[in-house]
Amino acid sequence: MTLIIILIALGLDFFLGGLERFRNFNWFIALFYWLEKRLGHYKIWDGTFGLLIVLSIALSGLFLVLFLFDSSWIVKTVISLLVLIYCLAPEDLDSRLDDYINALDSEDTSTVTSLTEEFIDNTVINDNDSNEVAIIKSALVESHKRTFAVIFWFLVLGVVGALFYRLVNELDDELNDIRSGFSDSTNILINILEWPSSRLMIFGLALAGHLVDALPKWGKAEHLSFEVNNTVLTNAGLGALQYMPESQLAGREKSYWIDEFKSLLNRTLIIWLAILGLMTLSGSLS
Questions:
Q1: pLDDT tens digit string along 184-233?
Q2: Domain that holds residue 247
Q3: What number of CA atoms fall less than 13 Å from residue 203's CA on the CB side?
Q4: Distance of CA 104 to CAs 93, 132, 245, Å?
Q5: What's the total number of domains in the chain?
């Protein structure tokens, strides 16, 4: 049933499209600021305890609904599906990559510039990265956060795990430019949550792409630290893509590497869904 819910969620997001407008977490950010206004003067708030308070209150509604409908597996399945769709966000990234590819091929400079600015995450790139490398790195991290990490925690802790991860991710993004005990605790927690899912995504990228290039770059960047998740992911991803911009073969479109990267992400997702399917058939996954 777990795999079926994941497949339906991904399928609905792909075929319906435009679901981004329903993925609004402003209520959670508003809850955080409301609690901070009332509890911020307490020293214990600015740290792990405060983070646990916010997350506990935000998740209490889902716990209550699951408890009330515990006897109805149909209702619980529908709730799980809806919450998973709410927490997933794969379609928007896929569409933006398509838009970027089309803009490159049609030499639409203004659209390319606009999408480049929209794509690039300055926290995961280096100063000497080209726009193409910066987009690939940023999209790798975004894909992990939007899809792979959510599915991983859905598999581990069910629908509560998926929502738990997404709430921590949203809060970490909100507090990204703020230095405090609360933001540090949030950053530590998101790094812990993303450690296993990022390594599993790397394994999938290696299988979907060039294994002999992905694994050495993974090993070179790995320091058994929660703080290198994005570095390990982007280095291994470029290795799996076997990114070599200097090899400009005749007839290649400008969008060649971005198109190859998009295909790599899709193959990686398919490989992991196939693995989950085999686990389901073997009885390892319910």
A1: 999 999 999 999 999 999 999 999 998 888 878 777 777 767 778 999 99
A2: 2-282
A3: 9
A4: 16, 11, 15
A5: 1
